[in-house]
Amino acid sequence: PVNDHLMELLIMVDACKRASCRQVTAVIPYYGYARADRKTAGRESITAKLVANLLTKSGVDRVLAMDLHSSQIQGYFDIPCDHIFGSPVLVDYLRSRAQGEVVVVSPDVGGVARARAFAKQMNDAPLAIIDKRRSAHNVAESLTVIGDVVGKTAILIDDMIDTGGTISQGAKLLQRTGAAKIFCCATHAVFSPPAIERLSQPGLFEEVVVTNSIPVQREFHFPQLKVLSVANMLGEAIWRIHQESSVSSMFR
Predict the structure, then answer these.
(1) Are residues 102 and 216 in the same domain?
(2) End position of a domain, from candidates 61, 84, 107
(3) Among the listed residues 142, 136, 137, 150, the one whose alpha carbon sits nearest the alpha carbon of residue 172
(4) pLDDT in tens, 171-205
(5) Which of 132, 172, 181, 226 is flagged as catalytic?
């Protein structure tokens, strides 16, 4: 639970500071509450900023986070915030699995920048976009595909999979549009119900590829699921921070 982990982190930071620790770096593979990064209606909380304030006030000197929901969250911190990406791990795996002509698909307009960067890493694969309208919170309705996916291997890319509504509806639309195979990949496997039922539908996905930025419990595993480790990437970033060398150069 995000609440428990956040509270434990704050307590550990306080303990370190009271023990005269010189510097505290909070390594946060999955930054909880990141989706509430702005006000979309009156009387809403911006919890991404609130959590940043809590971490800073508790005594954290530096933050290492992976695939923030939006890059501007880095600016919510008044301390250094290193933002790393899980895409190199996903790309290395998918290059060997996605055969034939590949097209990278963004599940919504907001993810186009992420999908474009991913497509460039996939040997400059073409890009397609799913035009979507959300009728209610956590409910998505896919409408149309912008781009050519007919006969191609489609890779749906997002930063996280929560209930799986966006991804599964997008995959069904791609099937109807003529995609030959569909892979789904994301850094953070939140997997809120009914995500497992949606993602494990027979014949929908070739594979659902995620990382272990959030531990995937055994009961959440299904045949199409592939979990990749980001331990080496996080370890490299931590070592570079300790050595006071560049973290961003890992992704150049």
Answers:
(1) yes
(2) 84
(3) 142
(4) 999 999 999 999 999 999 999 999 999 999 999 99
(5) 132
